[in-house]
Write a structure and sequence with these properties.
CATH superfamily of the domain at 5-61 and 87-153 and 268-355 and 380-388: FAD/NAD(P)-binding domain
Structural class: alpha+beta
Largest sheet: 8 strands, mixed
Helix content: 25-40%
Distance between the termini: 23 Å
Oligomer: single chain
CATH class of the domain at 5-61 and 87-153 and 268-355 and 380-388: Alpha Beta
CATH topology of the domain at 5-61 and 87-153 and 268-355 and 380-388: FAD/NAD(P)-binding domain
Shape: globular
Bound molecules: flavin-adenine dinucleotide
Number of strands: 17
Strand content: 15-25%
Order of helices and strands: HEEHHEEEEHEEHEEEEEHEEHEEHHHHH
Amino acid sequence: MGGGIGGCALALSLHAAGITDVVVHEAADGVRELGVGINVLPHAMRELDELGVAAQVAAVAVETSELSYHNRFGQQIWLEPRGLAAGYRWPQLSVHRGALLSVLHDEAEHRLGERRFHYSSRVEADDLEHLEGDVIVACDGVHSALRSLAAPAEGPPLWNGVTMWRGTTVAEPFLGGRRMIMAGVLAHRMVIYPICDLPDGRQLVNWVAEVRTEDGRPMPRQDWNATVDVTEPLRYFDAFRFDWLDVPSLIEQSEQILCYPMVDRDPLTTWRHGRLTLLGDAAHPMYPVGSNGASQAIIDARVLARELRLRSDISEALQAYEGQRLPATAAVVLANRRAGPERSMELVAERAPNGFERLEDVISHDELVAIAADYKRTAGFDPATLNDRPSLSVPDA
Ligand SMILES: Cc1cc2nc3c(=O)[nH]c(=O)nc-3n(C[C@H](O)[C@H](O)[C@H](O)COP(=O)(O)OP(=O)(O)OC[C@H]3O[C@@H](n4cnc5c(N)ncnc54)[C@H](O)[C@@H]3O)c2cc1C
């Protein structure tokens, strides 16, 4: 249940594994192109490629070929190639969440049949016993209604005090038009990347402004669609005027500003409750650090479909899925709490709060390389391992 990124990826993965008796219960009344930008990293692009939908996603996305980290003065701390430019066999795509969802949903509906998608069909924990099916997979996002069955003692998602404002702005390409940038520190930073090339040569640029507000401001509503006035994020980023990008102007020209708290949950010891398991944000909501949320949901879907197909015993299949995916995603949740690959920005700010003359006096190249490589290993997208590992597709499905 849940027809978001994870639910649609699961529907596609089950179909590809030869499991076609699938029903998706989605609370919304249809597919809505909600949200702003999202990233699909090479480890998830491999799965979308093997599901035969990579080209459709690429057609509505921007291929990100570089990532750079900067301090709050715009000084560059780190620059690395991404996707194909970094030697992966699959690209990194930056895309509007709604466009990604539409591709996954349309293809899943086409392959499985329209009647498999039930809209305005919200499932609550009490409904579990009435739901038909050998397996129930909760793909119902960070506010999962069914997660409480696997984790009865758990409270609401945990807020780290950071408020995130998100928007998209039509703008001229910056730094070559294929670059994702981050500037500042987790408590006060901007994340900016293009998600769509427009016919007139401009781009739709996604931005996220993140601030740990110290003014006793209450946690924003956990509503993906909550909008606020532009002055809210603007006042924190007035100084972010770099010679390569004018951040306040990007924020000002945004049509709509969405506001959401930065939340996650502690990793669980199990995702299972009888025939129920969890997937995606329902299983392992994580801070949007390292661009991994959607990618990990897509990989969950592929592993679960594979295990369900390869094992005759459903309980063993759910156990095998959890055995692979729970520890792997728990490591990402915890790494993201420590700022993940973006830890280098925190270290540079601590050591040189007023900027630097020479970066090498502040942090060594080896330290920067180690931070970036560590996170890729933790999140499962170390290039050599990803390129060489066997496929998750089920042979002759
Ligand atoms: C409206 C929306 C906008 C978002 N915007 C962004 C964004 O701009 N950038 C970003 O990085 N991430 C965004 N996210 C989160 C992002 O999609 C996820 O972090 C990630 O893709 C993992 O996907 P998921 O399928 O696990 O969860 P989600 O994509 O959150 O999907 C969960 C789905 O379950 C449905 N659902 C919820 N409760 C029930 C229920 N009780 N019964 C049935 N269905 C239910 C929801 O309507 C939704 O379709 C957004 C999520 C939503 C729902």
